[in-house]
Amino acid sequence: MKIIDAHCDSILDVLHGQRHLGDKRHNGQADFTSLREAGVRLQFFAVFIESAYKPAKAVLRALEGIEVFHGELERNAHLVTLVKSKEDLKRLSEDQRLGGLLAVEGGEALGGQLSMVSTLYRLGVRSIGLTWNQGNDLADGVGVGEKHQGLTKFGEEVVKEMNRLGMLVDLAHIAEKGFWDVLEVSESPVIVTHANCQALCPHPRNLNDEQLNALAAQGGCVGITFVPDFIDAVNPSIDRLVDHIDYAVQIMGIDHVGLGSDFDGMDTRTPGLETASDLPKLVAELLQRGYSEEDVNKLAWGNWYRILNECLPKEN
Questions:
Q1: How many whole angstroms from its chain centre is CA 106?
Q2: What is the distance between the alpha carbons of residues 160 and 5, in angstroms, rounded to a whole number?
């Protein structure tokens, strides 16, 4: 079964000097080889900007993360290839290597300059998460609390520029007012790369039914995540994770739900899904729940592929 995983933070391990992504022996959750062996054909790799670098050094830290990832691509060209266009996406079916899609997590990477959107694009970035948990000059994140503000004028300009270039607008971490504002502004489907369902687990990072409905109506997709706190506060498990998939499918329809593991971005691990090598267990659980192979293919691969094929530029 082919898989697209919409979020991991493995680049951070490289930035911190802990390992290289071509190494299979490590204490992390994902690497190029284990992802490919588990069936992942395309992995979103996020450049996360730690709070200590915000705001003054956020742009430099983002560029450092991007450079580190390009170094990993060059070092492991036999294992991974960068995906930047529809043509690259199509070639994945013929290429035995893992596809890597470069993302940035947090609009602080733009430094308040609209021109930085195209700069990141030229560097290979094809997805930007507008916020992390804090607020920035695009919008507020969920960590701001009840007094959060929505999308700013600059944020609107960024979304429109991302639409124009062919970059995915990621609303993971954004506060609710900003979520609704982006759906009004964006002319392309928006995504939430890693979040679950508030109805099953009332974590502020999860989405309520209205958000799930609206995301589907706009043509977008949610990546159900493996973070234990987002699955169940008491008993996170593969079984409970599939409950979130079931619920999201019930609300959104089968065509708008995918996977967004958040490997290497969590403090604790869900039993049974500790590393990328465990992904086949999730596929097996979905089949056991009664999903057809066609529907599992949509959840694991097809829904993200559709959005990427719609949003990415035709060629590099």
A1: 12
A2: 25
pLDDT tens per residue across span 36-60: 999 999 999 999 999 999 999 999 9
Cis? peptide before 55, omega within 30° of 0:
yes
CA distance 303 to 97: 21
pTM: 0.97
Name the token pair of 57. Answer: 């050094």
C-alpha separations of 77 from 27, 28, 122, 212 in Å: 23, 21, 20, 38
Spans of the chain below 50 pLDDT: none
- The domain covering 3-311 belongs, at the CATH homologous superfamily level, to Metal-dependent hydrolases (3.20.20.140)
Burial 131-164 (b: 16+ CB within 10 A, else e): bbbbbbebbbbbebeeebebbbebbbebbbbbbe
Contacts of 210 (CB under 8 A, 6+ apart): none
For the chain, the structural domain boundaries read 3-311
How far is residue 137's CA from residue 144's CA, in Å, rounded to a whole number? Answer: 13
